[in-house]
C-alpha cells in the first residue's frame, strides 16, 4: 500500500485541526504509521514461515497457525489505521465543499464570510462533522483494542502453543517466531492507540466547551 500518498492526504487536515488534533495526527504519523511501515511489517513478515510445530504431518502447521492467528496483527493494524483516519478525510472533503461554496458566493458578489474553517470557531455542519469524526475515531480505536484483546488474550503472545486440531496426530507444540519482539511492538501499538483515544475525547470536550 502507498502509505506516503495516504500521509499526504491526511496532512491537509492538519491546518483545520485544533492543537489536540495536531498532536493526534503527529502521534498517528510518527508513533503508529511510521513504526508500522519501518519496523512492524518486518517483524511480522515471517510469522507464518517461522511458525514451527514439532510434527511433519501435512496440514497440521497450517491449521494450527490459522487457529492461533485467525487475523494477523499487521493486517488488523493496517485496517485500524485506515478506518481511524477516514473521518479526517471526511472533514477535509467537507472543508473543500465549504470552500467551493464560498467561491460560488464570491462569484455572485458575496464575500463568503460565513464560511468557518477554524474548528475551534466553526458553526453548523462543519462543526458537527468534525465533532462526529472525533467520536468515530475514538470508537474505532476502542473497537480494535477489544478485538485484539479477544483474539490475543491480554495482548500477549506465548512462546509455545499446544495444538490438537485435525489433521495433527496428537497434541503438538508449536513455536512462535520472535514472541518477545512481537509483544513489545503490540504493547507499543496498544499504548499509542489508548493515547489517541484520550486525545480524541479531550478534543471533543474542548470543542463542546468552546461552543
Name its key features.
single chain, 211 residues, mainly alpha, de novo design (two linked rop proteins), three-stranded antiparallel β-sheet, 6 helices, elongated
Question: Between the first and last Cα atoms, what is the distance in angstroms?
Answer: 39 Å
Secondary-structure element pattern, one letter each: HHEHHHEEH
Question: In DSSP terms, counting alpha (H) and pi (I) runs of 4 or more, how many helices?
Answer: 6
Q: How many runs of DSSP E, i.e. beta strands? A: 3
The helix content, as a percent range, equals: 55-70%
Mean pLDDT across all amino acids: 80
**What would CATH call the class?**
Mainly Alpha
Strand content: under 5%
Which consecutive residue ranges, at least 5 long each, have pLDDT under 50? Answer: 114-120
Q: Structural class of the helix and strand makeup? A: mainly alpha
CATH superfamily: Gap junction channel protein cysteine-rich domain
CATH architecture: Up-down Bundle
Instruction: Give Rg in angstroms.
Output: 22 Å
Total domains, how many? Answer: 1
**So what's the overall shape?**
elongated
Amino acid at each position: 500500500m502507498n502509505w506516503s500518498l495516504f500521509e499526504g492526504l491526511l496532512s491537509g487536515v492538519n491546518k483545520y485541526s485544533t492543537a489536540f488534533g495536531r498532536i493526534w495526527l503527529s502521534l498517528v504519523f510518527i508513533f503508529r504509521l511510521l513504526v508500522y511501515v519501518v519496523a512492524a511489517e518486518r517483524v511480522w513478515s515471517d510469522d507464518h514461515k517461522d511458525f514451527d510445530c514439532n510434527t511433519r504431518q501435512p496440514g497440521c502447521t497450517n491449521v494450527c497457525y490459522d487457529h492461533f492467528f485467525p487475523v494477523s496483527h499487521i493486517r488488523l493494524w493496517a485496517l485500524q489505521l485506515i478506518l481511524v483516519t477516514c473521518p479526517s478525510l471526511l472533514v477535509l472533503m467537507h472543508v473543500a465543499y465549504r470552500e467551493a461554496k464560498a467561491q460560488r458566493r464570491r462569484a455572485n458578489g458575496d464575500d463568503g464570510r460565513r464560511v468557518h474553517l477554524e474548528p475551534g470557531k466553526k458553526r453548523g455542519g462543519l462543526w458537527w462533522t468534525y465533532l462526529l469524526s472525533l467520536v468515530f475515531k475514538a470508537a474505532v480505536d476502542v473497537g480494535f483494542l477489544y478485538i485484539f484483546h479477544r483474539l490475543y488474550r491480554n495482548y500477549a503472545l506465548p512462546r509455545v502453543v499446544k495444538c490438537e486440531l485435525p489433521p495433527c496426530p496428537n497434541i503438538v507444540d508449536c513455536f512462535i517466531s520472535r514472541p518477545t519482539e512481537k509483544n513489545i511492538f503490540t504493547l507499543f501499538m496498544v499504548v499509542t492507540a489508548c493515547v489517541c483515544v484520550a486525545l480524541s475525547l479531550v478534543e471533543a470536550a474542548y470543542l463542546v466547551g468552546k461552543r
